[in-house]
Amino acid sequence: MTVEFGNEGSRHEHGSRARQAVQRSRGAVATLAGVNADDVVFTSGATESNNMAILGLAEHGEATGKRHILSTQIEHKAVLEPLEALGKRGFEIELLRPNAGGWVEPEAVRAALRTDTLLVSVMHANNETGILQPIAEIAECLKNHSAFFHTDAAQTFGKSAADLNNNRIDLISASAHKFFGPKGIGALIMRKRGFERIPIRPLTFGGGQERGLRPGTLPVPLIVGMAKAAEIAIRDRTSRQQNCQAIRRDASQFVKQIGGLVHGDMSRCQSHIISFSVPGLDSEALLLTLKDLISFSNGSACTSARYQHSHVSVAMGLSNEAASGIVRLSWCHMTPQIPWNEAAERVKALM
Question: Of residues 141, 244, 269, 302, which has the active-site annotation?
Answer without folding.
Answer: 302
